[in-house]
User: What shape does this take?
Amino acid sequence: MKRNAYIAAAASVVLIAGGPAAAAAAASADTARTAPAAVAPADVDAQAAAAAALKTYPGVVESLDKDDAVWHVDVIGKNGKHAELTVDTRSGKVFTENADDDSDDSGGNKALLAAKVDAQQAMKAALAAHPGKVWSVEWDDDGAAYWHVEVKESSGKTWNAHVDPTTGKVTAASDDNDNDND
Assistant: This one.
């Protein structure tokens, strides 16, 4: 109660001495002191999710995709072990879902581990060709190996880009929304 009386008295003095502008400044300063800071957390993007996953489980990203509030990231360690991780889109915190010795005897992991262009570089190349946000990236080695990168533009269009694992060049791209006219 005394606090309100002091504030009212101070406001009166401010009004007399400095006018309405000074009173508004004093009121906003008091509000700023008592109001909690509202800071909206930024979403963790694909590149940050990949970096967080690799910090927790060193190796090479095999695939990454966004599912609501988490990124699912599959990592192949240099030793051939496979880990399935999730990265929270708000905090960037990494959770290990599964880690096992999933050594690939057919050599598929060897090609991924030997690729000159990794998932992060493939994402950068795809974004250079089609600005937006990476929604998924996946190593595809059925036939000629390439990175499949899905980019969502701000307009809502989704682009599927194929990135060459040797050169980093976007070798093919298609718009998912081209077939919406059925």
Remarks:
- The radius of gyration is 26 Å.
- The helical segments are 2-34, 46-56, 108-114, 119-129.
